């Protein structure tokens, strides 16, 4: 940086060009109660003409341009920018920032502009100002190619200080290094980062395009559904909201499921809503008690129709800078996903599929393999980690074995294929020559690869290897291998889920795999009477890069079938859903829909590590708003109208007395 | 209706044209558990091609057209419609309905179609079916001009019954006559009416256009703000939401006010949100505990900018069928509105302004008028009701006097101008000749008019006459006079409100007229120290046909000024808003915004008498969801995780014991 020559050049330029600098500084001293207001309003109640631009980001504004838009085309124009002081450089430049970027403001050096110079040089970082000046080309060699506005600078002619930044909890440039708690407490500062600005704007744009697609292209109706609803019996994850009627509570619903179906019964035909949903996950870490879903429901449609709609919507709304999206998306059955990836939301950005070795070992003499195969649903499965033998350390291998043991109660057999093709494995001596050959050929293992082999029930072995597959991908990447393209977006439909699953606490009984409103697959309908556990549902999950970002189904639209599922299969009291059953019997059309998790979708799109990075004011890990301190105490007096009182846990019902019985 | 000739014509037509009727009826008998599912899904997990249309209201659907779109252009086309059986006519026609309208389906009469005929004739009203057939021109003379599809009918060739409507609580055509409670309980049936379908669709369209205007035209960012927030101290109208941490509560905010301002501090520049807001109005009737506002905030803008933005937004999004909207809207100061209309949200669709008669009676001998004028802010005001003397009955006049007495504690003097120009009034004998002449000329009273005169403090007299003005308009209209054009939309800005008002319970102290974040008008800023009650705020209300549909302000962006208002003027504890004060001190830009009440706006646009008619699932008059029965009881067991218990009012704290003290 040739500062000297730069300053010389400036002097020459100044000498050549007379500036008519008007200088109006607001009274910014700390002693006055408030500074001269920004800009006098017209005194009459009829107002003056709005600012020059009538559309675009600077319409109706004090500025003529944003801080990110000036280019060499604008040279010679008089412009007005508003923004924050990013930093000052050597009493020569003020770098001004707004949401759109940075612009360099040149501080006039000539004597006639002494007041302006002093005011500019005295600006505290993060103060908010308006600068009027002329766009100049930067002197040759002084361009900044890394800065979109790096070809130009603004020669300041006028400054208005809107607000002096008096107090920052820390230097802005130190901000990223601070604890997340501090960044959450000063969320309004964290949001000033270009990354957060981009995330919020991309989210807004994405949602806007989705709306255009649904409303304008396909005739959907945006309908708002209530969030003060009736509590679902047993809905342990629903927040309660006391009403002023003693003992009566609203609840905040986890989704508008019932309402969207009722809208179909109501003949609304095509409904969508960007819906706020609530889930009280209590002590679970990293929870957001409120989240947003893109909620869609259609009448007279089948599974293929909903899938095509969602593909079209994502293609239409996909941010241009992320490259075009190919449709249709890949489709995989639940069984295929479990078989090949050991999980119902496979990350298909890389291969490393599960390999069934049961046949290889069908007549093995190895005792633990024989015993595994003889058990119910017994199987021998493996994954082959490319160059895993080469790159994984002993510690890596221990971690994998430990995961198997701790999370799945399962032993893992490792086979390392040395560069010379020989094996290193506890199994080595036990394997026959044909077994070894079959194993390597079946697994397509090459020198340097690592085989992870698990033997046992498919119910354990598949999820185990599905988990290790992802862990191995992370390990390989931590060793510098690129396995998953961070700019790739692999969408995948998973279909043909079982409609019911055995209850965790009582495997004799069945639970809905998703929810009790999912329709069975047509050809499985008869099984509902005989073998309900074999019925597949018309349910579809949408997976992106191994994250489940949505799920939906064709719903049951016949009251008789819905009643059978509730009463005979799920053993639930159907009277709790009587209004829905009644609605189905009043002329319900065939219908189906989907809900996409917007926060998760956007976080994958922008590559954020947490959904907190795509939410303006997220709750902390523990569900707190660290800025305003919510949740907070409320006095017993203020609780009175709601006919509730606090039961402090230390008292253990002692003092509180009759609460429980009074509740009857 | 020449039914005979019609049937004859049909026979001829059928004889001329051979129909290849395929007939597939689903097993609709009540004895089977469920009927054959709608449409077999492709067996493979790869799906079949979507339905013909790829965009529009019938895209991806079982139907080819909606029930409202077929015209004579479509004659000869084979179409598929899906919808509800509106009614059957003489075993000849099924009238099919969907959201878009009605289509007449002709039942084939030839013998070869006996099965199809039987199925169609046996359809229960409100059953859901798919009909395939050919579009025919209706026989000459049989067209229905009142029906958009009245030129055509569909000759049915195939029927699929999706769902039989087995049970309706009442006949659909009787529905409008039923009690609102019943219509709320069966909301999904009420929503099938063409009016409700129109209302929901117009609302969706209006919001979509607003979003396009804000996002696409002016670069606004749609940001979602939390609804689980910290309770505002003293925020009696905020619902509380217990958390799982003992004694800690979230609250549901009445508006995103704090968040929108923090977003400006965060540099988001232009924010909007169609925001769900909550207000617990307890025992107030006709309340909606949740409602929706169009929430807007902008940086680097003044009052004129926000007003121009809103005008542009409404013009852009205005439904075409309501005629174009003229901008800019009329602007009126608060003082002008009170002076001329006696209210801060004048209905400017009609004149009948308040008339100041103080001068007319400045030297009157009439005792009660003299005494009124001599009191502080004493005044004599009137309205002249055109042809009120002619049309109002004695009972009408009594009602007006009673309103004055009961609601305002004020006597009202009536002067009826007879057709011959003579007066009928208790005042008649007391008025001098010049007074009478002045009165009539000042009031521009013509024969047949009615003068309502009130004398007293302006604080009472203006609101009284403002109220009577509206009541007189209603009375005139009830007598068949058209005063307000029901298709007219009069938008009006009311500006220059006082920033503070005397507290109702303690007039010595001041309260914010709107909220404590409103900036004072520039020229009034100095009065904040000396005479705060004289300060006008940079606040603006948007009024439509006499309804307040929005309000906003330029906000205080200096911490020092905000602190002064909170602490010295409003006498509030500023520590409760410390995060906001801290934010203002960290570089807050000048900013302002507005919030429009979406439910109210839409209800005025569609001419609905209640906002319940523009909300899909509103709460009842008492805040209940009559369909699902919310709010509902929750067991003490389910309240346990929230550390609260119910205090039953009959127990009067007796049995419950320590609740109150335990809370300390």
Automatic annotation (TrEMBL), chains A, B:
GO terms for biological process: aspartyl-tRNA aminoacylation. It holds the Pfam family GAD. One of its GO terms (molecular function) is ATP binding. InterPro entries: Aa-tRNA-synt_II, aa-tRNA-synth_II, aa-tRNA-synth_II/BPL/LPL, Asp-tRNA-ligase_1, Asp-tRNA-ligase_1_N, Asp/Asn-tRNA-synth_IIb, AspRS_core, GAD-like_sf. Residues 200-618 form the Aminoacyl-transfer RNA synthetases class-II family profile domain. Keywords: Aminoacyl-tRNA synthetase, ATP-binding, Ligase, Nucleotide-binding, Protein biosynthesis. The keyword Protein biosynthesis applies. One of its GO terms (cellular component) is mitochondrion. CDD domains: AspRS_core, EcAspRS_like_N. HAMAP family: Asp_tRNA_synth_type1. Belongs to the class-II aminoacyl-tRNA synthetase family. Type 1 subfamily. NCBIfam families: aspS_bact (TIGR00459), PRK00476.1 (NF001750). PANTHER family: ASPARTATE--TRNA LIGASE, MITOCHONDRIAL, ASPARTYL/LYSYL-TRNA SYNTHETASE. This is Aspartyl-tRNA synthetase 2, mitochondrial. The lineage of its organism: Eukaryota, Metazoa, Chordata, Craniata, Vertebrata. The gene is DARS2.
């Amino acid at each position: 940086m040739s500062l000297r020559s730069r300053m010389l050049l400036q002097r020459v330029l100044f000498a050549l060009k007379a500036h008519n600098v008007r200088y109006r500084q607001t009274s910014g001293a700390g002693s006055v109660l408030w500074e001269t207001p920004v800009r006098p309003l017209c005194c009459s109640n009829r107002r003056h003409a709005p600012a020059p631009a009538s559309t675009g980001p600077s319409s109706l504004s004090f500025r003529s341009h944003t801080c990110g838009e000036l280019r060499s085309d604008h040279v010679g124009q008089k412009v007005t920018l508003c923004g924050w002081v990013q930093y000052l450089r050597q009493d020569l430049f003020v770098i001004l920032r707004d949401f759109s970027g940075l612009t360099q403001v040149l501080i006039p050096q000539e004597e006639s502009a002494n007041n302006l110079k002093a005011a500019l040089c005295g600006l505290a970082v993060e103060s908010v100002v308006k600068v009027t000046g002329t766009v100049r080309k930067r002197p040759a060699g002084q361009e900044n190619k890394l800065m979109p506005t790096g070809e130009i600078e603004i020669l300041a002619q006028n400054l208005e200080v809107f607000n002096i930044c008096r107090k920052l909890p820390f230097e802005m440039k130190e901000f990223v290094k601070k604890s997340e708690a501090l960044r959450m407490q000063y969320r309004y500062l964290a949001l000033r980062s270009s990354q957060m600005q981009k995330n919020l704007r991309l989210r807004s744009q994405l949602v806007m395009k989705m709306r255009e697609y649904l409303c304008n292209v396909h005739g959907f109706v945006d309908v708002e559904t209530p969030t003060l609803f009736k509590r679902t019996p047993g809905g342990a994850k629903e927040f309660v909201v006391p009403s002023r009627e003693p003992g009566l509570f609203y609840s905040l619903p986890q989704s508008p499921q019932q309402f969207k179906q009722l809208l179909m019964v109501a003949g609304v035909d095509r409904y969508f809503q960007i819906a706020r949903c609530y889930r009280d996950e209590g002590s679970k870490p990293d929870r957001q008690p409120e989240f947003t879903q893109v909620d869609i429901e259609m009448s007279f449609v089948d599974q293929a129709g909903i899938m095509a709609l969602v593909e079209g919507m994502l293609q239409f709304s996909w941010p241009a800078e992320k490259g075009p999206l190919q449709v249709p998306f890949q489709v995989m059955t639940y069984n295929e996903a479990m078989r090949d990836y050991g999980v119902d939301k496979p990350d298909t950005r890389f291969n490393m599929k599960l390999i069934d070795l049961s046949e290889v070992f069908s007549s093995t003499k190895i005792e633990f393999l024989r015993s595994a195969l003889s058990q119910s649903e017994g199987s021998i499965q493996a994954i082959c980690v490319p160059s895993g033998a080469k790159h994984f350390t002993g510690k890596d291998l221990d971690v994998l074995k430990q995961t198997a043991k701790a999370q799945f109660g399962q032993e893992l057999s490792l086979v390392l294929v040395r560069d010379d093709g020989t094996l290193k494995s506890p199994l080595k001596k036990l394997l026959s020559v044909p077994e070894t050959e079959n194993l390597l050929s079946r697994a397509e293992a090459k020198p340097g690869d690592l085989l992870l082999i698990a033997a046992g029930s498919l119910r354990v072995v598949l999820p185990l290897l599905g988990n290790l597959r992802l862990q191995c991908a992370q390990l390989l990447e931590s060793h510098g291998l690129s396995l998953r393209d961070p700019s790739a977006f692999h969408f995948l439909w998973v279909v043909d889920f079982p409609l019911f699953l055995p209850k965790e606490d009582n495997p004799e009984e069945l639970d809905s795999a998703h929810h009790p409103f999912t329709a069975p697959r047509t050809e499985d309908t008869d099984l509902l009477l005989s073998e309900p556990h074999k019925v597949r549902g018309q349910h579809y999950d949408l997976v992106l890069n191994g994250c489940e970002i949505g799920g939906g189904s064709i719903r049951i639209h016949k009251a008789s079938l819905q009643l059978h599922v509730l009463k005979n299969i799920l053993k639930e009291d159907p009277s709790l859903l009587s209004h829905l059953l009644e609605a189905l019997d009043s002329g319900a059309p065939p219908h189906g829909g989907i809900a996409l998790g917007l926060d998760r979708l956007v976080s994958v799109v922008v590559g954020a590590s947490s959904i907190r990075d795509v939410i303006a004011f997220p709750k902390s890990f523990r569900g707190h708003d660290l800025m305003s301190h919510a949740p907070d105490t409320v006095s017993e007096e203020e609780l009175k109208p709601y006919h509730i009182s606090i039961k402090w846990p230390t008292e253990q019902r002692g003092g509180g007395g009759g609460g429980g019985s009074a509740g009857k």
